[in-house]
Design a protein that fits this description.
Radius of gyration: 16 Å
Strand content: under 5%
Mean pLDDT: 87
Number of strands: 0
Number of helices: 7
Distance between the termini: 32 Å
Shape: globular
Helix content: 40-55%
Structural class: mainly alpha
Largest sheet: none
């Protein structure tokens, strides 16, 4: 969606067109070509978007759980990184959005993730946080 909205090409461009393979641990976000309908519907509502590295998802998941949160799929953790991206933006207008707005994230999934997979996700997150 980021590529489709930023370029204005909506579903006429994919991440592969930019030399990316589209492979990610963020299976819930793994769409290499956005829906044209979706881009047209949200184009006037979305003020910006951002991307994250896979390792950031696991580190954020571990920090979230350690600080009292519940388990969720790593892809959900992308939304947790949004306010930090805004606060560190080079534009003071963008950075001030965290003071003027409310950041809401929707954490879906996780209930059906097997315990051994959860443990592997946490181990990966712990190794990244301890760096």
């Amino acid at each position: 969606v980021t590529v489709g909205l930023a370029s204005g090409l909506h579903d006429s461009i994919s991440v592969q067109d930019l030399g990316l393979d589209g492979k990610t641990e963020a299976d819930g976000l793994a769409v290499s070509r956005a829906s044209g309908l979706c881009c047209k519907m949200v184009g006037g509502l979305v003020a910006g978007s951002f991307t994250v590295e896979d390792d950031e998802l696991f580190a954020s998941l571990e920090q979230f759980i350690t600080n009292g949160g519940r388990f969720m799929e790593p892809s959900c953790c992308a939304a947790l990184l949004g306010p930090a991206r805004l606060r560190t933006a080079s534009s003071s207008e963008v950075a001030s959005l965290t003071e003027r707005g409310t950041h809401i994230f929707w954490a879906t999934g996780g209930a059906l993730v097997p315990e051994e997979v959860r443990a592997a996700y946490r181990a990966k997150g712990q190794s990244l946080v301890s760096r």
